[in-house]
């Protein structure tokens, strides 16, 4: 039995899923994986189901009825994880923008070095992003600076989605009250943990834009992040148990 679970949300990731699973399972540490699939029409869930025969007891599949946001997929994955005895629970993309070799670095930050949350950060040591257009880099980097200004968090990459949580962090957050689904979901989770006094550490990683498949970024996700941060901060001022 592994003490770690890597949650990988998927929607139309048939081009990436087999390779990313092989890469995670090839690491020196034993990781379990939960794929949370949002009813991908391209057969992603069916492929994972077949691969479960190869990765018996290490690969798990949670199928949802429809696509209704990254945040909702992760919340479903968190709830599943907390029903099992995992101590360290990861967020990770399916498209190789997050390097599976960095999993052990995030794990060590929490398991060995005392972090409650380890964030794979694109901005803690300069800007370590590959193959993004300048406009997207400026948008993402600017959003992170904006979040720091509004919330007071010291996290330089608040929208990062490559994360290791100690179990206790997720247990302390009322997952049914997490509001946002896109970029703002990542900010909200970090902000809730920050307000509860958990130690958040950023680990520098190189982020590479996907080669296969299509990006899920949209204008509504960006606007949710911009306006959602203000509502998060205002709510935290008036709700003591936030």
Please outline the helices and strands.
Elements: E1 4-10, H1 17-25, E2 32-37, H2 44-51, E3 59-63, H3 70-82, E4 88-91, H4 103-111, E5 117-121, E6 129-130, H5 134-151, E7 163-166, H6 167-172, H7 183-195, E8 200-204, E9 207-208, H8 219-238
Parallel strand pairs: 1-2, 1-4, 2-3, 5-8, 6-9
Antiparallel strand pairs: 4-7, 5-7
Helix pairs in contact: 5-8, 7-8
Structural key phrases:
alpha/beta, 7-stranded mixed β-sheet, 9 strands, about 15% strand, globular, Polyprenol monophosphomannose synthase
Structure description:
Residues 6-172 form the Glycosyltransferase 2-like domain. This is Polyprenol monophosphomannose synthase. Keywords: Glycosyltransferase, Transferase. The protein has 242 residues and is α/β, with parallel strands linked by helices. It has one domain (4-238): Spore Coat Polysaccharide Biosynthesis Protein SpsA, Chain A (Alpha-Beta Complex), CATH 3.90.550. The chain is 40% helix and 17% strand. It has helices at residues 17-25, 44-51, 70-82, 103-111, 134-151, 167-172, 183-195, 219-238, and strands at 4-10, 32-37, 59-63, 88-91, 117-121, 129-130, 163-166, 200-204, 207-208. The chain has a 7-stranded mixed beta sheet with strand order 3-2-1-4-7-5-8, with helices on both faces. A two-stranded parallel sheet has the order 6-9. Helix 5 packs parallel to helix 8 (219-238). The longest helix is centred in the C-terminal third of the chain and has 20 residues, at 219-238. The model has no long low-confidence stretch (mean pLDDT 89).
């Amino acid at each position: 039995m592994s003490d770690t679970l890597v949650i990988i949300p998927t929607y139309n990731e048939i081009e990436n899923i087999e390779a990313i699973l092989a890469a995670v399972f090839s690491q020196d540490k034993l990781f379990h994986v939960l794929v949370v699939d949002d009813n991908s029409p391209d057969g992603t869930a069916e492929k994972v189901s077949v691969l479960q025969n190869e990765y018996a007891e290490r690969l798990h599949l949670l199928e949802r009825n429809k696509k209704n946001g990254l945040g909702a997929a992760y919340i479903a994955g968190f709830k599943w994880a907390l029903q099992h005895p995992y101590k360290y629970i990861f967020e990770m993309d399916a498209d190789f923008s997050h390097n599976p070799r960095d999993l052990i670095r995030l794990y060590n930050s929490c398991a060995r070095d005392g972090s409650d949350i380890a964030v794979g950060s694109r901005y803690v040591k300069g800007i370590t992003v590959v193959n993004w257009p300048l406009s997207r880099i400026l948008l993402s980097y600017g959003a992170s600076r904006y979040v720091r200004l509004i919330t007071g968090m010291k996290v330089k990459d608040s929208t990062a989605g490559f994360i290791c949580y100690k179990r206790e962090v997720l247990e302390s957050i009322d997952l049914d009250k997490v509001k946002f689904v896109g970029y703002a979901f990542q900010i909200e989770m970090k902000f809730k943990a920050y307000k509860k006094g958990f130690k958040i550490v950023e680990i520098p990683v190189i982020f590479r834009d996907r080669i296969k498949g299509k990006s899920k970024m949209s204008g509504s996700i960006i606007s949710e992040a911009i306006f959602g941060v203000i509502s998060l901060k205002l709510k935290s001022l008036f709700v003591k148990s936030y």
